[in-house]
Design brief:
alpha+beta; 2 helices; globular; disordered N terminus
């Protein structure tokens, strides 16, 4: 009986000693007591949220009355044309979006304008376009030309800015009222004696080129075609 008790005590002592040695070796080797638990915690962590895309300024211009910007309210789709055409080379960019026109005057008052038919640009580069201006008495008129090239006519929009604010100008002709017009490639829009001069015509089947004159009425925000 005594012999069995002594053997049992020795067995327990050996087990305690072996367990103590194992823990000591793990601590010396830098092994965590629960390595698998740590690994599971790390792998189940949630990914960081994607950053919010800010409005893309597609075109901008400065005047004495404030700053005009054309912004896309959604991420733009930018792609190469892929093949040469009347609109540009294969390496030119077609840029599409949902655009708004924003004017910030010198007092930081913001006005948003709508050009619903403005949905895309075709340009040699993908940088912000610098808008050109036409000078009228007490008014500066920004010219928006979405496509830099065309076979027959370049469409354009006009935005009038003055101390009264910013307004899109419409074109009144014998055929109706339009929010955009077009001029011939390789010509320029000009202002003479307060009248806008547009080189127009030369479309398919019509070789006649004419200089058209538009007289502005800034009170009604209309440019009327005159003889």
């Amino acid at each position: 009986m005594l012999k069995r008790i002594i053997l049992s005590v020795l067995g327990v002592s050996l087990l305690v000693f072996a367990t103590s040695c194992t823990k000591s070796e793990q601590q010396q080797n830098g092994v965590s007591a629960a390595p698998h638990t740590a690994a599971m915690t790390e792998s189940s962590s949630s990914p960081s949220p994607s950053p919010v895309t800010a409005s893309q300024v597609r075109a901008a211009g400065e005047s004495q009355y404030g700053t005009l910007e054309i912004q896309s309210t959604v991420p733009e789709k930018v792609e190469k044309l892929g093949a040469p055409s009347c609109y540009g080379t294969a390496e030119d960019y077609k840029i599409s979006g949902t655009y708004k026109v924003q004017f910030t005057d010198t007092a930081n008052k913001v006005t948003e304008l709508t050009l619903s038919s403005l949905t895309s640009f075709i340009q040699p580069g993908n940088e912000t376009l610098q808008l050109k201006k036409l000078a009228f008495p007490e008014h500066e008129v920004f010219v928006i030309i979405p496509n830099y090239k065309d076979c027959h006519g370049l469409s354009f929009y006009l935005i009038d800015v003055s101390k009264e604010g910013a307004f899109p100008l419409k074109f009144l002709t014998g055929e109706g009222t339009f929010d955009q017009y077009d001029f011939l490639p390789n010509t320029e829009l000009k202002v003479k004696n307060g009248v806008l001069l547009v080189q127009h015509g030369g479309g398919a089947g019509n070789e006649a080129v004419m200089e058209q004159k538009f007289k502005p009425d800034f009170n009604t925000h209309v440019l009327e075609l005159t003889p």
